[in-house]
Amino acid sequence: MISASDLRAGMTFVQDGKLIKVLDASHHKPGKGNTVMRMKLKDVRSGATYDTTFRPEEKFEKAHIDTKPVQYLYTMDDTAFFMDLETYEQYEIPVET
């Protein structure tokens, strides 16, 4: 688990079953109130971005993301094809992603 105050730009976490990427994060202390975390977030699957605030002590599940080197092969219709450089396995990804 990771607290909202530890989230930084580029990190990913799970919120309500959705994979979320932090685009921007900052502490905000209003004059007469508790500190809040202002964040610009992106839903990785849908591509939607939105601004929100969290209390610094809120906890989230940190997402485990694996990356691997791939090579772009070609695009056919609305699908791009990539090849894993280690196993030569091919992946199809919709162009809209």
From TrEMBL:
Is Protein biosynthesis one of the keywords UniProt gives this record? yes
Q: Which domain of life is it from?
A: Bacteria
Please report the stretch or stretches of sequence annotated as the Translation elongation factor P/YeiP central domain: 68-96
**Keywords linked to the UniProt accession:** Elongation factor, Protein biosynthesis
Q: GO CC annotation: what is one?
A: cytoplasm
Q: One MF term from GO for this chain? A: translation elongation factor activity
Q: Where is the Translation elongation factor KOW-like domain?
A: 3-60
Is-annotated flag, keyword S-adenosyl-L-methionine?
no
Q: Which InterPro entries match?
A: NA-bd_OB-fold, Rib_uL2_dom2, Transl_elong_fac_P/YeiP, Transl_elong_KOW-like, Transl_elong_P/YeiP_cen, Translation_prot_SH3-like_sf
Question: Family per UniProt?
Answer: Belongs to the elongation factor P family.
Role played = Involved in peptide bond synthesis. Stimulates efficient translation and peptide-bond synthesis on native or reconstituted 70S ribosomes in vitro. Probably functions indirectly by altering the affinity of the ribosome for aminoacyl-tRNA, thus increasing their reactivity as acceptors for peptidyl transferase.
Protein name, as recorded: Elongation factor P
